[in-house]
Design a protein that fits this description.
Length: about 325
């Protein structure tokens, strides 16, 4: 480590050099070619507000007279490096079982140097998505390749979407690209669920791998960025309507009519189910103070006044049962 710099001093020792007069006005000279490399060390920074300024200079010292010659001029190298931002967007929401949706990945170079050998990965779990039906957009940017690893033979096999820049292809400073692929959710996807899906920037380097480089050169791998978005499934929609009352058989009215004290009203709750699996659903009817529950005939599942199946062709688990919470007048039980 040299005393006049913050890095390494390279010293060349020569035997005495005699340069006799040759009768011309030009000084004789010799030169030395050196190959230097910018190191991947924490002190060297190429992105941000204060990139490293690496100053280089030379001097000649005559040991015989201990006299120091003038310094050469400074040759300063400003360090640059790529810096990639990763983005991810799910273009559709409110998905039902079997629906196809589109994933958009974006990558942009906000640094000051070309980015090479970029690798993006997006893990797709087979438990939630039909991985053997993944389709890549036809307009993939030139010089980039998309693939699956592994290629799933069945729809429930885990796989990873890999998007890779070809050898020698640069993502230039200020350049931004987007990639799209689509796939269906599983037929039995959970209704009203939300799945966080994360893409990863696995690798990005600053040297063009298509060019020759000396063995042992360490380049900086600036990977590690992530981007996530939620894959949101559809929820059930509820309808609440008045059917009739003990004093009137009027139906299809918006809201409840004027009811007198002691009058009973029949209401209907419709649950509009999206395709998928509704896991252990709970239906809660919130009644105001002054209205109480008197019966719904839950013991007869197919009865009009109980649990109806109009237009429903799926499978349903155990029969519904009623329970109560909150402050009520009297003490009704589920049997009532």
């Amino acid at each position: 480590v040299g005393a006049d710099g913050d890095g390494r001093d390279i010293t060349f020792n020569f035997n005495s050099i005699t340069n006799p007069p040759d009768g011309d006005d030009s000084n004789d000279y010799f030169y030395i070619d050196l190959e230097l490399v910018v190191l991947d060390v924490p002190s060297v920074v190429g992105f941000g507000g204060s990139p490293s300024e690496l100053k280089n200079r030379a001097r000649v010292l005559s040991l015989g007279s201990q006299r120091k010659a003038n310094w050469s001029r400074n040759v300063t190298a400003t360090v640059t490096e790529p810096h990639l931002l990763l983005g991810k967007t799910i273009l559709e929401s409110g998905l039902e079982g079997g629906d196809r949706f589109t994933v958009q990945l974006s990558v942009s170079n906000t640094g000051d140097a070309n980015a090479y050998d970029v690798i993006l990965e997006d893990f797709i779990p087979g438990a939630s998505f039909k991985t053997n039906q993944i389709l890549f957009a036809e307009n993939l940017p030139a010089g980039w390749t998309a693939s699956l690893a592994p290629v799933p033979a069945n729809e429930d096999v885990d796989t990873t979407v890999r998007i890779v820049s070809d050898s020698g292809v640069a993502l230039e400073p200020g350049e931004a690209l987007s990639f799209e692929f689509s796939l269906p959710v599983d037929d039995a996807i959970e209704v009203a669920s939300s799945i966080v899906n994360t893409a990863n920037l696995i690798q990005v380097t600053s040297l063009d791998s298509s060019l020759p480089h000396p063995d042992g050169i360490e380049e900086r791998d600036s990977g590690g960025a992530t981007a996530s978005d939620d894959i949101v499934m559809a929820n059930a929609n509820l309808g609440f309507s008045f059917v009739s009352s003990s004093e009137s058989d009027t139906s299809d009215m918006d809201g409840l009519p004027a009811l007198t004290i002691g009058e009973r009203a029949r209401v209907r709750v419709d649950v509009d189910l999206p395709d998928g699996t509704f896991v252990n659903p709970t239906l809660i009817l919130e009644l105001p103070d002054g209205i109480d529950f008197v019966g719904s005939n839950f013991s007869d599942g197919m009865a009009y006044s109980g649990l109806g199946y109009d237009g429903f062709y799926g499978s349903m688990g155990a029969q519904a049962s009623a329970s109560f919470s909150g402050v009520v007048d009297g003490d009704p039980t589920p049997d009532e």
